[in-house]
Amino acid sequence: MGLEENIRRVRENIAIAAREAGRDPGEITLCAATKTQSDETIRAAIAAGITVCGENRVQEMTAHLDADAYAGAQVHFIGHLQTNKVRQVVGRVDLIESVDSLRLLEAIDRQAASLGLCQDILLEVNIGRESSKSGVMPEEAETLACAAFGLSNVSLRGFMAIPPAVSPGESRRFFREMRQLFVDIKRKMAHNENDINCLSMGMSGDYMDAVREGATLVRVGTALFGAREPRELKE
Q1: What sign results for the dihedral spanned by CA atoms 228, 94, 212, 181?
Q2: Coil, helix or strand for 224?
Q3: How many CB atoms lie within 10 A of CB 149?
Q4: How many angstroms from the chain centroid is the CA of residue 60?
Q5: Beta-bridge partners for 51
Q6: Read out DSSP for 89-118?
Q7: How far apart are the first and last CA of the chain?
């Protein structure tokens, strides 16, 4: 199937999962994970209705921005962000989804301050407690959220998580746990709870389950663009 048909099918699946959970499909944002995609493919996706693109790699993102490939869509940075790459990302994207430490949080705040802006962010939670993955442990998420609220040049909009690679259906318990953590922290931050409105979880293999368990944003790549070709890239 072509790109337009893939986008239509993914949106239909999101709507099915949302209705199963008694939710409005309009509450869920589809973020196209455009890792390794060309400028032309990104433009075609946006022309077909994609409104948010997510990039994993700073070098690719910068090249696409310079080519104006994202015109008409928001840009999210969804990959692991090193502190020495912060200057290339802050102020150039609508949302940084992968803030996973106090050190990175403070680096983003400093760079945003130097640019005179406030950067929207999500905190990444290592919901499966995997040593191979980034993200704060679930019990540390509230402390990092409080730190974010204490900074003037970042705006905490919610949380992001990537569950462990498990059999189909088994990821739901991780999504459920992440949703509960999201709700609990939001409740404790009552003075800012209206700003905390994004729960980013779910990818090509499990986005329907993520929607069933409360995701407000899903990051889908392969289901839209097909399998990625191996590619060497050094940042």
Answers
A1: positive
A2: helix
A3: 15
A4: 17
A5: none
A6: HTTTSSEEEEE-SHHHHHHHHHHHHHHT--
A7: 33
Phi, psi dihedral angles at 46 (to 5 degrees): -65, -40
The yes-or-no verdict on residue 229 having pLDDT over 80 is: no
Residue in 2, 10, 9 with CA at minimum distance from that of residue 207: 10
**Tens digits of per-residue pLDDT, 16-32?**
999 999 999 999 999 99
- Please report which helix (H) or strand (E) contains residue 157, including its range: strand 154-161
83, 96, 100, 140 from 164: Cα distances, Å: 25, 21, 17, 19
Gap between the Cα atoms of 179 and 176, Å rounded = 5
The number of helices, as runs of H, and strands, as runs of E, in the chain is 9, 8
Q: What is the mean pLDDT of residues 94-101?
A: 97
Alpha helices by DSSP H, the chain: 3-20, 39-47, 58-66, 86-89, 102-115, 141-149, 172-188, 207-212, 222-225
